[in-house]
Specification:
Number of domains: 2
Shape: globular
Helix content: 40-55%
Structural class: mainly alpha
CATH topology of the largest domain: hpI Integrase, Chain A
CATH superfamily of the largest domain: Intergrase catalytic core
Order of helices and strands: HHHHHHEEEHHHHHH
Distance between the termini: 69 Å
Strand order of the largest sheet: 1-2-3
Strand content: under 5%
Number of strands: 3
């Protein structure tokens, strides 16, 4: 067990990956030695030895920290989000003006990235969306673009993918016209009504998660943004900006599909300006409640 762990660590495997391997081996050993099965007796009869638990506290990796990712990971600022999307839109305009191929693909990619941000989606959740996943909300003026039904959320404990409905918030209503343009005007030129996926290609396939990562990186570099920013940073930005807009932490947790509030807290990194405004508001309320001295 020690040699197995050392070899993986030397190969650069992340702590969370090693912990996952340890967990799988631990569960398998628990199955082998469980009194509910006959494996212990069978092994003793066949091999003259019995299985045992090899994953112990002293030779496996414990989950000691709330966040073990790269410390450079952060959400995008409002200006960075605007710069990224302006760059994506400008690429569409340039392709249309030049008459070259690729304008529809560029339009799709721009709207896909905006969807990741506006709904705080993981990459697999985003590329797996179907037209049937466009839902209405209480904002009737948005029509079928008021919410997204996410059917391929991150699974836990080997279970089925988690499902949730993510509501569009008023601060992101700018997303609606672009989505209407893609779904109702541009997408039909790529695929007919027989294809369920929202993000289809000219080859009548779905956009892949890897492709989405590459498109984000290309646009990020074209926009001159920090190369440490990743596609997942848009999800962090979604959580952070919702909190700064004043939405309750529980609402943000439900939007992200997190089981625990502690997970949501890892995603949020509110700005100093927001903290200062919050403090100023609290002090104002305190002074007003005390009245004149």
């Amino acid at each position: 067990m020690e040699s197995f762990t050392v070899d993986l660590a030397a190969a650069g495997r992340h702590l969370s990956t090693l912990r996952g391997y340890h967990g799988s081996i631990r569960m398998f050993c628990e199955y082998l030695i469980s009194p509910h099965y006959d494996w212990v007796e069978i092994c003793e009869a066949q091999f003259g030895t019995v299985p045992s638990q090899v994953c112990l506290p002293w030779n496996t990796i414990a989950h000691r920290f709330a966040f073990e990712g790269d410390g450079s990971r952060r959400p995008l600022t409002y200006d960075e989000v605007e710069t990224l999307f302006n760059t994506a839109d400008a690429r569409v305009d340039d392709l249309v003006a030049s008459g070259r191929k690729g304008a529809l693909s560029a339009l799709r990619d721009a709207q896909l990235l905006k969807t990741v941000y506006a709904f705080g989606l993981r990459r697999t959740e985003a590329v797996s969306l179907d037209l049937a996943d466009l839902h209405h909300s209480s904002m009737r003026s948005w029509g079928r673009y008021g919410a997204l039904y996410v059917r391929w959320g991150k699974a836990a404990g080997g279970g089925a993918p988690k499902r949730r409905t993510v509501l569009l918030v008023p601060e992101f209503d700018w997303w609606v016209p672009g989505m209407q343009q893609w779904v109702e005007e541009a997408r039909p030129r790529f695929a007919g009504r027989d294809l369920p996926g929202i993000w289809v290609t000219e080859r009548r396939t779905r956009v892949s998660p890897g492709y989405l990562d590459r498109r984000f990186s290309d646009l990020r570099d074209a926009a001159g943004l920090d190369r440490k920013l990743t596609l997942h940073s848009l999800r962090h930005s979604f959580a952070t900006h919702l909190l700064e807009f004043g939405y309750a932490e529980r609402f943000v947790q439900e939007q992200l599909g997190h089981e625990h509030a502690s997970t949501t807290s890892i995603y949020a990194s509110v700005s100093s300006d927001y903290k200062n405004r919050l403090l100023a508001h609290a002090l104002k309320n305190l002074l007003e409640s005390e009245g004149p001295q």
